[in-house]
Every structure is written in structure tokens, then in C-alpha cells.
Amino acid sequence: MLFVLGNHLFLFIGDIVTFLNSFLPCVIRSFVHG
User: Fold this and answer.
1) What is the CB neighbour count within 10 angstroms for residue 27?
2) 6: burial class by Cβ within 10 Å (0-12, 13-18, 19+)?
3) Sequence-ordered strand ranges (E) for 1-34
């Protein structure tokens, strides 16, 4: 049970990191060139 929960949490964090990696550069670029 705890292992499954940890695995889901790990995948969730992976999705967040992937989202930030695709989202942050656009924000930083628009902020720098703003």
C-alpha cells in the first residue's frame, strides 16, 4: 500500500518536473525580453 502510494507520488512529481521544464523557459524568456 505504502509502496504503491510512493510510486504514484514519484510519478506525480515527475509530471510536475516535466511541466516546469516546459513551462518555466517560456516564462523566463518572456520576462527577460518583456
Assistant:
1) 10
2) exposed
3) none
**Among positive and negative, which fits the CA dihedral 25, 26, 27, 29?**
positive
The model's pLDDT over 1-33, given as tens digits with 9 standing for 90+, comes to 678 888 999 999 999 999 999 999 999 999 998
C-alpha cell at 1: 500500500
The pTM of the whole model exceeds 0.70: no
Counts for the chain of helices (H) and strands (E), in that order: 1, 0
Q: What is the DSSP letter of 34?
A: -
Retrieve residue 7's grid coordinates: 510510486
Name every residue whose Cβ is closer than 8 Å to that of residue 6 and which is 6 or more positions away in sequence.
none
